[in-house]
Amino acid sequence: MARRSLYQAADPAASPTASLPHSSYAHIRRSHALLLKSGDLASDDRLASKLLSFYSSLCRFPDAVLLLDDIRDPDPFCFSNLISALSKSPSVTDASSALALFRRMLRGGLPPDRFVLPSVLKACAALQSDLAGPQVHALASVSGCAGDSFVQTSLVHLYLRCDRTLDAQRVFERMTNQSVVSWSAMVGGYARSGCVAEALRTFDLMRASGVEPNRVTWNGMIAGFSTSGLTRESARALRKMHSEGSRPDGSTVSSVLPAIADLEDGLAGMQAHAYIIKCNLESDDCVVTALVAMYGKCRLVEEMLRAFGGIGRKMEVGACNALGVPGRGVKLNVISWTSIVACCSQNAEDTEALDLFGEMQAAGVRPNSVTISCVLPACANIAALGHGRSVHGFSIRNGMSEGVYVGSSLVDMYAKCGRIGDARRVFEAAAPSSRNVVSWNAMLGGYAMHGKAREAVELFDLMRMRAQKPDSVTFTCLLAACSQAGLLEQGLRYFETMSEDHGIAPRMEHYACVVSLLGRAGKLERAYALTQKMSLKPDACLHGDVALGEIAARKLFELEPGNVGNYVLLSNIYAAKGMRGGVDGVRDMMRAMAQEQVAHASRGDQSHPQMTQILERLEKLSVEMRKLGHQPSTDLVLQDVEEQDKEHILCGHSEKLAVALGLLSTPPGTPLRVIKNLRICIDCHSVVKFISRFEMREIFVRDTNRFHHFKDGECSCGDYW
Predict the structure, then answer these.
(1) Fewest Cβ atoms nearer than 10 Å: which of 47, 179, 195, 457?
(2) Which of 517, 639, 645, 656 lies closest to 575, judged by CA?
(3) Domain boundary residue among 228, 245, 267?
């Protein structure tokens, strides 16, 4: 029987050069079935190899792997073809599968060659694997492929992706053919690492060597500076690119707009928008998304809407209502919806973000993983646990929960909703290969927020065991956890090793954690000395020492004259020391501001339809507390009023009102969650502890500093906050 080609088996009219539309998967499956039935597939590995190539090109990886299992003696081309396709996939799971196939190839006695190694290195780069990458590099050297230009370029990309710039530089310097691709990679790598001088020097050396930068080079430098937070350098690079006659494209503009957003420079954003229109880039979805995000961060909602209107897009009525503007009655795509959801979430319009997420699905637009990553912070910000769980369920059903950023957002959401155990379970459920520093930081931040220093330290040790490189945020979380638990020596040791062992320069947030740590331990002279050594302009932490408190307060009054919290902190120091004159002096300084704020709070409180029942419930609880000997901490009240009036003022603190409302609005035994935009005061802390035991409720209070989990009359902070 004459052997038929794959194309003849599937469709006699097809030709080997015919394109493969999405529907061709069905044709390939029919071809596969016919070849199995005829026995041709079992007798000719070349047909099987071609079929495997088709499956790979259509990203039908399970079919391809099953077919590979049926090939008696697969050659390197079979593995190379499938590994190449897997390495091009954006999924980290597929990158892991590519490495697994490569290991299988080696176990089968097939040596690596210059065709498969670049794909394997690309998979290592996608996983940011500090372990597998160097091992593959060693294999390339042993097999004699390390001198191949494609392998070398892939090694440069790998090391840059793993933040191993020096290793990338060593490979680059040994390259015999330093192409525009490798030069561009080095420029972009230095820019992403925040090494401005090195990026610019490499850019100049590139030209000096006779290789002219192209648009990819410029885009890499601009995007790198923007990613590393060097917003002004990113903008300068764009201006230089334009002045030298290189025309920016959609990728260029999409990279520089986040830099403008970080600066919150609305005028520069409008100028960039005008340039986008001039260059006819306003139909680029990536540009539109970046424009919307930029205007959202600059709080220019009308300009954001014009960004849609300028390209013929119209706003869905529900979305416009959520943003407080007239409806325009037209449909948005997933990128546009996601951008607006992100805009609301980033600008503290969390309820609107959740409403938009629902409107988006009602409009028939399916959210993607980026949408999920944008809506979960909104759930976290307002502790909307029910919504968060629904979004989690949606992500699982649609295969999005395993992505790094969705997973990290889920960890953060559960932690901020008081479910630290659920946060850890989500973290552990993620494949180790799919975790990056963002994932680890989300879990560390959750432990810090809940005051679980021991767990944070253990997680940090595990992070180092897994060869995950920490960053600045890692140490902020770690130092905050030590500060919450009073781990003085351990916290100071981490602060020292941060720069000595990890090369991370301390930022303001690191100094703030250490000052707080020293202050809580009564080491105020050391805390003050540390602030004097800082190269940054300090804010202040006041912890019980009157002389140092006054010095720090005077500095704060200069820096933040309108921040009532600074006055309250100093007043609390005076009150704790029984210095009534000091309290009166602070009260005189803030009288106008305080009166305005108290009046506003009073009006807001009385407007609640259940305020009478709320106050009655609090009064009943207060009576029960007095029977057990509880005395309100009236020394925290700054107003010069009678003792009884001070008790009434304390009764009106927002967390007490919120807890009372929760008691009225939920069935007995239901856990309560309260979010507070200031640190909880001593009196409220005592009251909520009592309520948790008296009402037999779990109560979670998230203030600006940490989580307090009240249960059976005790708090998770151990009264140390």
Answers:
(1) 179
(2) 639
(3) 228
Quick one: 1 exposed, middle or buried, by C-beta within 10 A (0-12, 13-18, 19+)?
A: exposed
How many residues would you count in the chain?
A: 721
User: Taking a C-beta distance cutoff of 8 angstroms, is the pair 684, 418 a contact?
Assistant: no
Beta-carbon count within 10 A of 639 CB: 13
CA distances for 92 relative to 54, 77, 84, 95, 411, angstroms: 22, 23, 14, 5, 19
Residue range 505-512: average pLDDT? 85
Within-domain flag for 295: no
| Separation CA 174–CA 387 (nearest Å) | 54
49-67 pLDDT, tens digit each: 788 888 888 888 888 888 8
User: Residues 92, 129: contact at Cβ < 8 Å?
Assistant: no
In the predicted structure, residue 431 carries a pLDDT above the cut 80? no
Q: What are phi and psi of 714, to 5 degrees?
A: -120, 160
DSSP code for 267: H
d(C-alpha 661, C-alpha 648), whole Å: 17
**pLDDT attached to residue 442:** 92
Same domain, 616 and 502: no
- Name the token pair of 501: 């062992």
What is the pLDDT, as a whole number, of residue 541?
Answer: 42
Long-range contacts of residues 357-365, Cβ cutoff 8 Å, at least 24 apart: 357/391, 359/316, 359/318, 359/319, 359/322, 360/332, 360/334, 362/318, 363/316, 363/318, 363/331, 363/332, 363/337, 365/331, 365/332, 365/333, 365/334, 365/337
Say if residues 131 and 103 touch (Cβ distance below 8 Å): no
Rg (C-alpha) for the chain, rounded Å, is 30
- Answer yes or no: are the C-beta atoms of 721 and 705 closer than 8 Å: yes
**Res. 475: pLDDT tops 90:** yes
Q: Does residue 627 lie in a domain region? A: yes
Using one digit for the tens of pLDDT, what is the confidence trace for 12-57? 333 332 344 444 777 778 877 777 777 776 667 677 778 888 888 8
Residue 618's Cβ-count burial label (10 Å; 0-12, 13-18, 19+) is buried
pLDDT band at 10 (very low <50, low <70, confident <90, very high): very low
Please check whether residue 122 lies inside any domain of the structure: yes
> Mean of the pLDDT values across residues 264-277?
85
SS3 for 369-419, per residue? HHHHHHHHHHHHHCCCHHHHHHHHHHHHHCCCCCCHHHHHHHHHHHHHCCC
User: What is the number of domains present in the chain?
Assistant: 3
**Domain carrying residue 58:** 26-228
Mean pLDDT of 513-529: 78
pLDDT per position as a tens digit, 115-135: 999 999 999 998 887 789 899
* Burial degree of 413 (CB within 10 A; 0-12, 13-18, 19+): buried
Q: Between 404-416 and 437-449, two packed helices, what is the crossing angle to 10 degrees?
A: 0
Q: Which residue has the higher pLDDT, 490 or 683?
A: 490
Measured CA distances, 36 to 63, 233, 617, 651 (Å): 14, 60, 77, 80
Alpha-carbon distances of 251 from 160, 221, 255, 287, 288, rounded to whole Å: 20, 12, 6, 8, 11
Residues 57 and 152 in one domain: yes
